[in-house]
Amino acid sequence: MSVLVSGFSKLSKTEKIDWLIKNHLSDQKNAKDILTQYWNSDQKLQQLHDEFIENTVSNYYLPLGVAPNFVINDKIYTIPMTIEESSVVAAASKAAKFWQTRGGFKTKVIATNKIGQVHFTYPGAFSDLEDFFKNVKSKLILDAKPITKNMEKRGGGILDIQLKNKTKALDNYYQLHATFETLDAMGANFINSCLEQFAKTFKAEAEAMLPMPVTVIMSILSNYVPECLVRAEVSCNVEDLAEKDIDPNTFAETFVQAVKIAEIEPYRAVTHNKGIMNGIDAVVLATGNDFRAVEAGIHAYAAKDGQYSSLTHAKIENGIFTFWMEIPLALGTVGGLTSLHPLVKLALQILDQPNSKQLMQIVAVAGLAQNFAALRSLTTTGIQEGHMKMHLMNILNQFNATENEKTQIIEHFKTNIVTHSAVVEAIENIRQ
Ligand code: MEV
Protein backbone atom coordinates (compact mmCIF):
# COMPACT_ATOMS: atom_id res chain seq x y z
CA MET A 1 0.00 0.00 0.00
CA SER A 2 1.25 3.47 -0.87
CA VAL A 3 2.08 5.94 1.91
CA LEU A 4 2.12 9.73 1.80
CA VAL A 5 5.43 11.51 2.22
CA SER A 6 6.40 15.14 2.70
CA GLY A 7 9.74 16.75 1.86
CA PHE A 8 10.63 13.86 -0.47
CA SER A 9 12.42 16.07 -2.99
CA LYS A 10 14.75 17.31 -0.20
CA LEU A 11 16.05 13.79 0.51
CA SER A 12 19.35 12.69 -1.02
CA LYS A 13 19.22 10.21 -3.90
CA THR A 14 20.22 7.36 -1.60
CA GLU A 15 17.60 8.36 0.94
CA LYS A 16 14.97 8.43 -1.81
CA ILE A 17 15.93 4.93 -2.88
CA ASP A 18 15.85 3.71 0.73
CA TRP A 19 12.36 5.21 1.11
CA LEU A 20 11.23 3.53 -2.13
CA ILE A 21 12.57 0.18 -1.05
CA LYS A 22 11.02 0.42 2.41
CA ASN A 23 7.61 1.51 1.10
CA HIS A 24 7.25 -0.09 -2.33
CA LEU A 25 9.98 -2.60 -3.06
CA SER A 26 10.54 -4.43 0.21
CA ASP A 27 9.81 -7.79 -1.50
CA GLN A 28 12.35 -7.17 -4.24
CA LYS A 29 15.62 -8.22 -2.66
CA ASN A 30 17.93 -6.68 -5.29
CA ALA A 31 15.93 -3.48 -5.92
CA LYS A 32 18.87 -1.27 -4.98
CA ASP A 33 21.18 -3.15 -7.36
CA ILE A 34 18.69 -2.81 -10.20
CA LEU A 35 18.38 0.93 -9.68
CA THR A 36 22.08 1.58 -9.20
CA GLN A 37 23.35 -0.63 -12.02
CA TYR A 38 22.06 2.00 -14.45
CA TRP A 39 23.95 4.83 -12.78
CA ASN A 40 26.78 6.14 -14.88
CA SER A 41 30.26 5.72 -13.42
CA ASP A 42 31.12 9.17 -14.76
CA GLN A 43 29.84 11.29 -11.87
CA LYS A 44 29.49 14.44 -13.95
CA LEU A 45 27.43 12.68 -16.58
CA GLN A 46 25.27 11.11 -13.89
CA GLN A 47 24.74 14.47 -12.24
CA LEU A 48 23.64 15.91 -15.60
CA HIS A 49 20.97 13.21 -15.84
CA ASP A 50 20.00 13.57 -12.20
CA GLU A 51 19.34 17.23 -12.76
CA PHE A 52 17.15 16.89 -15.86
CA ILE A 53 14.17 16.21 -13.58
CA GLU A 54 13.24 16.08 -9.91
CA ASN A 55 13.55 12.96 -7.75
CA THR A 56 15.80 11.03 -10.15
CA VAL A 57 16.63 7.60 -8.78
CA SER A 58 18.11 5.95 -11.86
CA ASN A 59 18.49 6.25 -15.63
CA TYR A 60 16.01 4.63 -17.98
CA TYR A 61 17.77 3.36 -21.08
CA LEU A 62 16.25 3.14 -24.53
CA PRO A 63 18.21 1.88 -27.52
CA LEU A 64 19.68 4.43 -29.91
CA GLY A 65 19.78 2.89 -33.38
CA VAL A 66 20.56 4.29 -36.81
CA ALA A 67 18.79 3.84 -40.14
CA PRO A 68 21.22 4.46 -43.03
CA ASN A 69 20.65 5.03 -46.76
CA PHE A 70 18.06 7.80 -46.60
CA VAL A 71 18.26 9.99 -49.69
CA ILE A 72 16.48 13.27 -49.01
CA ASN A 73 16.53 15.93 -51.73
CA ASP A 74 19.55 14.14 -53.22
CA LYS A 75 21.56 14.22 -49.98
CA ILE A 76 22.37 11.00 -48.10
CA TYR A 77 21.47 10.74 -44.41
CA THR A 78 21.89 8.20 -41.65
CA ILE A 79 19.00 8.81 -39.28
CA PRO A 80 19.38 8.25 -35.52
CA MET A 81 16.34 6.71 -33.85
CA THR A 82 15.58 6.18 -30.17
CA ILE A 83 12.87 3.57 -29.71
CA GLU A 84 12.14 0.30 -27.93
CA GLU A 85 9.91 -1.35 -30.57
CA SER A 86 11.92 -4.11 -32.27
CA SER A 87 10.91 -3.63 -35.89
CA VAL A 88 10.95 0.16 -36.28
CA VAL A 89 14.59 0.81 -37.21
CA ALA A 90 14.68 -2.25 -39.46
CA ALA A 91 11.53 -1.05 -41.25
CA ALA A 92 12.93 2.47 -41.67
CA SER A 93 16.18 1.12 -43.11
CA LYS A 94 14.28 -1.11 -45.51
CA ALA A 95 12.10 1.76 -46.75
CA ALA A 96 15.18 3.99 -47.09
CA LYS A 97 16.91 1.40 -49.23
CA PHE A 98 13.81 0.84 -51.34
CA TRP A 99 13.44 4.55 -52.19
CA GLN A 100 17.17 5.17 -52.54
CA THR A 101 17.05 3.53 -55.98
CA ARG A 102 13.74 5.17 -56.91
CA GLY A 103 14.60 8.86 -56.66
CA GLY A 104 14.74 9.19 -52.88
CA PHE A 105 12.54 11.38 -50.69
CA LYS A 106 11.60 14.92 -51.68
CA THR A 107 10.75 17.39 -48.93
CA LYS A 108 9.76 21.00 -48.51
CA VAL A 109 9.16 23.26 -45.52
CA ILE A 110 5.88 25.04 -46.22
CA ALA A 111 5.85 27.47 -43.26
CA THR A 112 7.50 27.96 -39.86
CA ASN A 113 5.10 30.14 -37.86
CA LYS A 114 4.40 29.23 -34.23
CA ILE A 115 1.51 30.33 -32.10
CA GLY A 116 0.95 31.49 -28.53
CA GLN A 117 -2.08 32.93 -26.77
CA VAL A 118 -2.96 35.10 -23.82
CA HIS A 119 -6.40 33.91 -22.69
CA PHE A 120 -8.40 36.57 -20.86
CA THR A 121 -11.91 37.67 -20.00
CA TYR A 122 -13.47 41.10 -20.37
CA PRO A 123 -17.06 41.76 -19.25
CA GLY A 124 -17.47 45.07 -21.14
CA ALA A 125 -18.21 45.98 -24.77
CA PHE A 126 -16.13 44.38 -27.54
CA SER A 127 -15.84 47.71 -29.34
CA ASP A 128 -14.05 49.23 -26.32
CA LEU A 129 -11.68 46.30 -26.24
CA GLU A 130 -11.02 46.57 -29.98
CA ASP A 131 -10.15 50.28 -29.75
CA PHE A 132 -7.96 49.64 -26.73
CA PHE A 133 -6.14 46.79 -28.50
CA LYS A 134 -5.40 48.99 -31.53
CA ASN A 135 -3.78 51.53 -29.20
CA VAL A 136 -1.86 49.09 -27.05
CA LYS A 137 -0.59 46.65 -29.72
CA SER A 138 2.68 48.49 -30.46
CA LYS A 139 3.40 48.82 -26.72
CA LEU A 140 2.91 45.06 -26.28
CA ILE A 141 5.64 44.50 -28.87
CA LEU A 142 7.85 47.28 -27.47
CA ASP A 143 7.70 46.03 -23.86
CA ALA A 144 8.74 42.55 -25.05
CA LYS A 145 11.91 43.95 -26.74
CA PRO A 146 14.29 42.80 -23.97
CA ILE A 147 13.06 39.24 -24.68
CA THR A 148 12.91 39.52 -28.48
CA LYS A 149 15.97 41.60 -29.36
CA ASN A 150 18.42 38.67 -29.75
CA MET A 151 15.92 36.60 -31.71
CA GLU A 152 15.26 39.65 -33.94
CA LYS A 153 18.99 40.05 -34.61
CA ARG A 154 18.94 36.51 -36.04
CA GLY A 155 15.83 37.23 -38.15
CA GLY A 156 13.06 35.91 -35.90
CA GLY A 157 10.71 37.38 -33.31
CA ILE A 158 7.07 38.35 -32.99
CA LEU A 159 5.27 38.29 -36.35
CA ASP A 160 1.88 39.55 -35.30
CA ILE A 161 -0.61 39.86 -32.45
CA GLN A 162 -4.35 39.71 -33.05
CA LEU A 163 -7.28 40.20 -30.76
CA LYS A 164 -9.73 37.30 -31.07
CA ASN A 165 -13.30 37.45 -29.91
CA LYS A 166 -14.35 34.06 -28.55
CA THR A 167 -17.46 35.20 -26.70
CA LYS A 168 -19.76 33.19 -28.97
CA ALA A 169 -18.21 30.01 -27.57
CA LEU A 170 -17.56 31.21 -24.00
CA ASP A 171 -18.94 34.27 -22.23
CA ASN A 172 -16.49 37.21 -21.98
CA TYR A 173 -13.63 35.15 -23.41
CA TYR A 174 -11.00 36.78 -25.64
CA GLN A 175 -7.48 36.01 -26.76
CA LEU A 176 -4.34 37.78 -27.75
CA HIS A 177 -3.37 35.41 -30.53
CA ALA A 178 0.29 35.88 -31.39
CA THR A 179 2.46 34.38 -34.12
CA PHE A 180 6.21 33.94 -33.83
CA GLU A 181 9.25 32.94 -35.86
CA THR A 182 11.67 31.16 -33.52
CA LEU A 183 14.24 30.01 -36.14
CA ASP A 184 16.32 27.07 -34.86
CA ALA A 185 14.81 27.06 -31.37
CA MET A 186 11.69 25.06 -30.64
CA GLY A 187 10.73 28.34 -29.01
CA ALA A 188 8.58 27.30 -26.04
CA ASN A 189 10.48 29.43 -23.53
CA PHE A 190 10.80 32.36 -25.90
CA ILE A 191 7.10 32.33 -26.76
CA ASN A 192 5.93 31.85 -23.18
CA SER A 193 8.15 34.69 -21.93
CA CYS A 194 6.80 37.01 -24.65
CA LEU A 195 3.21 36.02 -23.82
CA GLU A 196 3.66 36.64 -20.10
CA GLN A 197 5.08 40.07 -20.91
CA PHE A 198 2.12 40.81 -23.26
CA ALA A 199 -0.26 39.82 -20.45
CA LYS A 200 1.49 42.12 -17.97
CA THR A 201 1.47 45.13 -20.30
CA PHE A 202 -2.07 44.44 -21.48
CA LYS A 203 -3.47 44.22 -17.98
CA ALA A 204 -1.61 47.28 -16.71
CA GLU A 205 -2.70 49.44 -19.68
CA ALA A 206 -6.26 48.13 -19.47
CA GLU A 207 -6.51 49.26 -15.85
CA ALA A 208 -5.86 52.83 -16.99
CA MET A 209 -7.81 52.82 -20.26
CA LEU A 210 -10.79 50.45 -20.06
CA PRO A 211 -14.01 50.96 -18.06
CA MET A 212 -14.15 47.28 -16.99
CA PRO A 213 -11.40 44.96 -15.66
CA VAL A 214 -9.42 42.56 -17.84
CA THR A 215 -8.77 39.22 -16.12
CA VAL A 216 -5.85 37.26 -17.53
CA ILE A 217 -6.57 33.53 -17.24
CA MET A 218 -3.30 32.19 -18.66
CA SER A 219 -0.53 32.80 -21.17
CA ILE A 220 0.87 29.83 -23.05
CA LEU A 221 2.15 28.71 -26.44
CA SER A 222 0.04 26.36 -28.52
CA ASN A 223 1.43 22.97 -29.47
CA TYR A 224 -0.97 23.05 -32.40
CA VAL A 225 1.20 24.48 -35.16
CA PRO A 226 -0.66 24.09 -38.47
CA GLU A 227 1.40 26.99 -39.83
CA CYS A 228 4.69 25.25 -39.05
CA LEU A 229 4.32 22.71 -41.78
CA VAL A 230 6.53 20.31 -43.70
CA ARG A 231 5.84 18.05 -46.69
CA ALA A 232 7.59 14.78 -47.56
CA GLU A 233 6.97 12.78 -50.71
CA VAL A 234 8.13 9.79 -52.71
CA SER A 235 7.10 8.99 -56.25
CA CYS A 236 8.07 6.71 -59.12
CA ASN A 237 6.64 4.91 -62.14
CA VAL A 238 4.31 2.16 -60.99
CA GLU A 239 6.45 -0.45 -62.82
CA ASP A 240 9.44 0.60 -60.76
CA LEU A 241 7.68 -0.59 -57.61
CA ALA A 242 8.35 -4.17 -58.73
CA GLU A 243 10.33 -6.31 -56.34
CA LYS A 244 10.86 -10.07 -56.19
CA ASP A 245 7.41 -11.68 -56.32
CA ILE A 246 5.47 -8.40 -56.00
CA ASP A 247 3.41 -7.31 -59.01
CA PRO A 248 3.83 -3.52 -59.14
CA ASN A 249 0.32 -2.68 -60.41
CA THR A 250 -1.45 -4.79 -57.80
CA PHE A 251 0.89 -3.48 -55.13
CA ALA A 252 0.31 0.18 -56.06
CA GLU A 253 -3.46 -0.21 -56.23
CA THR A 254 -3.69 -2.13 -52.94
CA PHE A 255 -1.38 0.39 -51.28
CA VAL A 256 -3.50 3.36 -52.42
CA GLN A 257 -6.62 1.54 -51.23
CA ALA A 258 -5.03 0.97 -47.81
CA VAL A 259 -4.31 4.70 -47.53
CA LYS A 260 -7.85 5.57 -48.61
CA ILE A 261 -9.22 3.30 -45.87
CA ALA A 262 -7.15 5.22 -43.31
CA GLU A 263 -8.46 8.48 -44.79
CA ILE A 264 -12.10 7.62 -44.13
CA GLU A 265 -12.01 5.17 -41.19
CA PRO A 266 -10.85 6.59 -37.83
CA TYR A 267 -10.22 3.15 -36.25
CA ARG A 268 -7.73 2.41 -39.00
CA ALA A 269 -6.44 6.00 -39.16
CA VAL A 270 -5.28 5.91 -35.53
CA THR A 271 -3.19 2.75 -36.06
CA HIS A 272 -1.97 4.00 -39.44
CA ASN A 273 -0.82 7.27 -37.86
CA LYS A 274 0.62 5.43 -34.85
CA GLY A 275 2.94 3.68 -37.30
CA ILE A 276 3.95 7.08 -38.72
CA MET A 277 4.64 8.28 -35.17
CA ASN A 278 6.94 5.25 -34.65
CA GLY A 279 9.32 6.93 -37.07
CA ILE A 280 8.67 10.51 -36.04
CA ASP A 281 8.94 10.01 -32.26
CA ALA A 282 12.12 7.97 -32.60
CA VAL A 283 13.95 10.81 -34.40
CA VAL A 284 12.34 13.48 -32.24
CA LEU A 285 13.57 11.66 -29.11
CA ALA A 286 17.04 10.97 -30.51
CA THR A 287 17.45 14.66 -31.33
CA GLY A 288 16.32 15.79 -27.88
CA ASN A 289 13.01 17.29 -28.94
CA ASP A 290 9.66 17.25 -27.15
CA PHE A 291 7.81 14.23 -28.51
CA ARG A 292 4.66 14.96 -26.47
CA ALA A 293 4.34 18.36 -28.13
CA VAL A 294 4.93 16.82 -31.53
CA GLU A 295 2.41 14.01 -30.88
CA ALA A 296 -0.29 16.41 -29.64
CA GLY A 297 0.16 18.78 -32.59
CA ILE A 298 0.22 16.09 -35.24
CA HIS A 299 -2.86 14.26 -33.95
CA ALA A 300 -4.78 17.54 -33.78
CA TYR A 301 -3.77 18.15 -37.40
CA ALA A 302 -5.00 14.67 -38.33
CA ALA A 303 -8.43 15.75 -37.06
CA LYS A 304 -8.40 19.25 -38.57
CA ASP A 305 -11.27 18.56 -40.98
CA GLY A 306 -13.59 17.38 -38.19
CA GLN A 307 -12.82 13.66 -38.35
CA TYR A 308 -9.58 11.94 -37.38
CA SER A 309 -7.94 10.86 -40.63
CA SER A 310 -4.78 9.58 -42.27
CA LEU A 311 -1.75 11.88 -42.25
CA THR A 312 -0.47 10.32 -45.46
CA HIS A 313 -2.04 10.26 -48.91
CA ALA A 314 -1.35 8.24 -52.06
CA LYS A 315 -2.37 8.30 -55.71
CA ILE A 316 -1.65 6.75 -59.07
CA GLU A 317 -1.82 9.21 -61.96
CA ASN A 318 -0.60 8.60 -65.51
CA GLY A 319 1.30 5.52 -64.38
CA ILE A 320 3.05 7.38 -61.57
CA PHE A 321 2.69 6.33 -57.94
CA THR A 322 2.93 9.21 -55.44
CA PHE A 323 2.86 8.89 -51.66
CA TRP A 324 3.07 11.98 -49.46
CA MET A 325 2.44 13.57 -46.10
CA GLU A 326 2.12 17.10 -44.72
CA ILE A 327 2.55 17.48 -40.97
CA PRO A 328 3.03 20.27 -38.46
CA LEU A 329 6.35 20.05 -36.59
CA ALA A 330 7.83 22.50 -34.09
CA LEU A 331 11.42 21.36 -33.55
CA GLY A 332 14.60 22.85 -32.21
CA THR A 333 18.24 22.22 -33.02
CA VAL A 334 19.53 24.71 -30.46
CA GLY A 335 18.69 25.09 -26.78
CA GLY A 336 17.04 22.55 -24.48
CA LEU A 337 18.50 19.04 -24.47
CA THR A 338 20.27 19.70 -27.79
CA SER A 339 23.07 21.50 -26.01
CA LEU A 340 23.04 19.29 -22.88
CA HIS A 341 22.65 15.60 -23.64
CA PRO A 342 25.84 14.10 -25.11
CA LEU A 343 23.90 11.54 -27.19
CA VAL A 344 21.59 14.22 -28.56
CA LYS A 345 24.63 16.25 -29.64
CA LEU A 346 25.98 13.14 -31.33
CA ALA A 347 22.66 12.42 -33.04
CA LEU A 348 22.66 15.94 -34.49
CA GLN A 349 26.24 15.41 -35.64
CA ILE A 350 25.21 12.17 -37.38
CA LEU A 351 22.61 14.27 -39.21
CA ASP A 352 25.31 16.79 -40.20
CA GLN A 353 24.14 19.49 -37.76
CA PRO A 354 20.77 20.29 -39.34
CA ASN A 355 18.99 23.55 -38.69
CA SER A 356 15.40 23.24 -37.51
CA LYS A 357 13.99 23.39 -41.06
CA GLN A 358 16.27 20.56 -42.16
CA LEU A 359 15.35 18.55 -39.08
CA MET A 360 11.63 19.04 -39.85
CA GLN A 361 12.26 17.47 -43.25
CA ILE A 362 14.29 14.56 -41.86
CA VAL A 363 11.65 13.79 -39.21
CA ALA A 364 8.84 13.92 -41.77
CA VAL A 365 10.76 11.50 -43.99
CA ALA A 366 11.21 9.09 -41.07
CA GLY A 367 7.43 9.15 -40.59
CA LEU A 368 6.63 8.66 -44.26
CA ALA A 369 9.20 5.86 -44.57
CA GLN A 370 7.74 4.10 -41.55
CA ASN A 371 4.22 4.27 -42.99
CA PHE A 372 5.48 3.00 -46.35
CA ALA A 373 7.17 0.04 -44.67
CA ALA A 374 4.10 -0.77 -42.55
CA LEU A 375 1.66 -0.58 -45.48
CA ARG A 376 3.99 -2.56 -47.68
CA SER A 377 4.04 -5.39 -45.14
CA LEU A 378 0.36 -5.12 -44.29
CA THR A 379 -0.77 -5.28 -47.93
CA THR A 380 1.63 -8.08 -48.93
CA THR A 381 3.00 -10.56 -46.36
CA GLY A 382 1.12 -9.25 -43.30
CA ILE A 383 2.85 -7.44 -40.46
CA GLN A 384 3.56 -10.36 -38.16
CA GLU A 385 6.20 -12.07 -40.28
CA GLY A 386 8.73 -9.24 -40.04
CA HIS A 387 7.54 -8.02 -36.66
CA MET A 388 7.87 -11.39 -34.93
CA LYS A 389 11.28 -12.01 -36.53
CA MET A 390 12.48 -8.81 -34.89
CA HIS A 391 10.67 -9.65 -31.66
CA LEU A 392 12.31 -13.07 -31.48
CA MET A 393 15.32 -11.71 -29.59
CA ASN A 394 13.03 -10.19 -26.93
CA ILE A 395 11.37 -13.55 -26.33
CA LEU A 396 14.75 -15.29 -26.16
CA ASN A 397 15.98 -12.73 -23.64
CA GLN A 398 12.81 -13.17 -21.58
CA PHE A 399 13.81 -16.84 -21.23
CA ASN A 400 17.48 -16.01 -20.53
CA ALA A 401 18.57 -17.92 -23.62
CA THR A 402 22.31 -18.53 -23.87
CA GLU A 403 24.29 -17.43 -26.95
CA ASN A 404 24.33 -21.02 -28.16
CA GLU A 405 20.56 -21.38 -27.71
CA LYS A 406 20.01 -18.06 -29.52
CA THR A 407 22.10 -19.16 -32.53
CA GLN A 408 20.22 -22.45 -32.85
CA ILE A 409 16.80 -20.88 -32.48
CA ILE A 410 17.45 -17.98 -34.86
CA GLU A 411 18.59 -20.55 -37.45
CA HIS A 412 15.44 -22.60 -36.85
CA PHE A 413 13.15 -19.58 -37.34
CA LYS A 414 14.78 -18.58 -40.62
CA THR A 415 12.46 -21.14 -42.18
CA ASN A 416 9.66 -21.33 -39.58
CA ILE A 417 6.94 -18.92 -38.52
CA VAL A 418 7.76 -17.04 -35.29
CA THR A 419 5.04 -17.09 -32.65
CA HIS A 420 5.50 -16.73 -28.91
CA SER A 421 4.47 -20.34 -28.26
CA ALA A 422 6.64 -21.71 -31.08
CA VAL A 423 9.69 -19.96 -29.61
CA VAL A 424 8.93 -21.26 -26.12
CA GLU A 425 8.57 -24.76 -27.55
CA ALA A 426 11.89 -24.44 -29.39
CA ILE A 427 13.64 -23.34 -26.18
CA GLU A 428 12.12 -26.23 -24.26
CA ASN A 429 13.17 -28.71 -26.96
CA ILE A 430 16.78 -27.55 -26.81
CA ARG A 431 16.84 -27.59 -23.04
CA GLN A 432 15.45 -31.12 -22.70
C1 MEV B 1 2.99 -1.01 -35.09
O1 MEV B 1 3.78 -0.35 -34.15
C2 MEV B 1 2.57 -0.05 -36.19
C3 MEV B 1 1.59 -0.61 -37.22
O2 MEV B 1 0.44 -1.14 -36.57
C4 MEV B 1 1.21 0.54 -38.12
C5 MEV B 1 0.12 0.23 -39.11
O3 MEV B 1 -0.74 -0.63 -38.83
O4 MEV B 1 0.09 0.91 -40.15
C6 MEV B 1 2.21 -1.73 -37.99
CATH class of the largest domain: Alpha Beta
- What is the terminal-to-terminal distance? 41 Å
Mean pLDDT: 96
Bound molecules: (R)-mevalonate
Keywords, separated by commas or semicolons:
432 residues; alpha+beta; 15 helices; Alpha-Beta Plaits; oxidoreductase; 3-hydroxy-3-methylglutaryl-coenzyme A Reductase, Chain A, domain 2; binds (R)-mevalonate; 4-stranded antiparallel beta sheet
Topology:
Layout (H helix, E strand, L loop, with lengths): L12 H11 L7 H6 L6 H8 L13 E9 L2 E8 L5 H13 L5 E7 L1 E8 L4 H18 L1 H9 L3 E9 L7 E9 L6 H22 L5 E7 L6 E10 L10 H17 L1 H21 L4 H12 L9 E6 L2 E9 L13 H9 L5 H23 L5 H15 L4 H10 L7 H12 L1
Antiparallel strand pairs: 1-2, 3-8, 4-6, 4-7, 5-6, 8-10, 9-10
Describe this structure in words.
The protein is an alpha+beta fold and 432 residues long. The chain folds into four domains: 43 residues, no CATH class; 199 residues, 3-hydroxy-3-methylglutaryl-coenzyme A Reductase, Chain A, domain 2 (Alpha-Beta Complex), CATH 3.90.770.10; 108 residues, Alpha-Beta Plaits (2-Layer Sandwich); 46 residues, no CATH class. Helices cover 48% and strands 19% of the residues. The protein is built from 15 helices and ten strands. The strands form three sheets. Strands 3-8-10-9 form a four-stranded antiparallel beta sheet. Strand 1 and strand 2 form a beta hairpin. The longest helix is centred in the last third of the chain and has 23 residues. The mean pLDDT is 96. The chain binds (R)-mevalonate. The site of (R)-mevalonate has 9 residues, from helix 9 and helix 12. (R)-mevalonate binds next to helix 9 and helix 12. Belongs to the HMG-CoA reductase family. It is an enzyme of class 1 (oxidoreductase). This is 3-hydroxy-3-methylglutaryl coenzyme A reductase.
